[in-house]
Amino acid sequence: MGSLGWMMLSFLALVFIVYHENNQNKMKRLQKQVKRLAAGEKGVNDMSALLQEFVGKKCVIILDDSITGLDNWILEAYDEQWAKLTRETKKGQKVKLIRVDDIKTIQDY
């Protein structure tokens, strides 16, 4: 094998290593997502049961993807996946639907 052959072999080995490493990273990310979803399934049922005490009350709700909270909203209704929030403004009533599994914390206003 000449130097061109060794360069080609080295290049193929490098491509294989990068491809293999990329697949391992993807696999780890997918495993984390599956674990988070499985934990979320358990948590959603618990959160749905806990939301009952906040129905009809003004609440401060902090979502997973948010630093600031949704304050002064009234929890009107909820089911296993969604929660309906309402709020009176000068222009009338605003309605917001949020996913129950996105709720990080909830407390009385």
UniProtKB/TrEMBL annotation:
Keywords: Membrane, Transmembrane, Transmembrane helix. The chain crosses the membrane at residues 6-22. It comes from the Bacteria. This is Uncharacterized protein.
